[in-house]
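note to self — DONT lose this again. spent like an hour looking for the file last time. sequence + predicted structure for the chain T wanted, 142 res
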Amino acid sequence: MTKCIMRELENLGEDKLGRDTLKQARLTVKLPCGHSGGILDPDECIEAYIGKRNENKVFVATNDEDLRNKLRNNGSVPIFFYNRTGVLVMDSPSDVSAQKFKMREQLKLEPTKAEKIFLKGQQDAIMELEREQKEEEKLRER
């Protein structure tokens, strides 16, 4: 939770949230906002904090459909929400998330830089051996 979100909760007050909810929110660790300037709208603050890559590896729990849609398009943040029956649900990964996951899996199949250098050295050694064998065959034929 960021300071911007806490400010929004305090503005809503105990009447809307309930005393226990506000009390628990006050006990929650506050993370530094990812934006410059003063207090922002909570949605904007969350988007700024997550950024494009969600480098802090956070998840978002919200029932705000607009915010969930924006975050789904980002494709880098797990989203939780309460369904109509009050059960906490993790949102299905978006198409963007699925594409990013697929690309990461493909990259795992690629050789590392060290492996590429090693393979290049092996390839050069094999080619050198083949050249030597051809030269030896030519000398034998004479």
